[in-house]
Write a structure and sequence with these properties.
The protein has one domain: Arc Repressor Mutant, subunit A, CATH 1.10.10.10. Helices cover 64% and strands 12% of the residues. It is built from five helices and three strands, in the order ααβααββα. A three-stranded antiparallel beta sheet has the order 1-3-2. A hairpin with a 2-residue loop joins strand 2 and strand 3. The radius of gyration is 19 Å and the shape is elongated. The relative contact order is 0.16.
Length: 115
């Protein structure tokens, strides 16, 4: 991978909130629920967690700010759903980092094995 293909500082800055949001067990659990259960209200999500609905709402807001979920009003409740595009972004970042590490290890191997 060339240096031009490496993640730019702007792309890394864009990825930071995404991975920060994914780094919390409750938020990761919320994403799993939304992946398997489809769009759900905070009330329905709270049945899966041992935290208050207010705490879940704050976690959902962090996920929303990272672009991982979106919500819509349905009557008196807010319905939350997964935003799969951002998970694709996370996979893309991880794939790029993996290729960079593979390339660096290949260069190290070539250097060490040089006669």
């Amino acid at each position: 991978m060339s240096r031009a293909e490496a993640l730019s500082p702007a792309r890394v800055k864009d990825a930071a909130p995404l991975f920060a949001a994914l780094g919390d067990a409750t938020r990761l659990g919320l994403l799993v629920c939304l992946c398997s259960g489809g769009p759900l209200s905070v009330t329905r999500l709270s049945s899966h967690f041992a935290v208050s609905r207010q705490a879940l709402a704050k976690h959902l807001e962090v996920l929303s700010e990272a672009g991982l979920v979106r919500s819509r009003r349905q009557g008196r409740e807010r319905i939350w759903e997964l935003e799969p595009r951002r998970l694709d972004d996370a996979q893309h970042y991880l794939d790029r980092l993996s290729r960079q590490w593979d390339d660096a290890l290949e260069r190290l191997k070539a250097f060490v094995e040089r006669p």
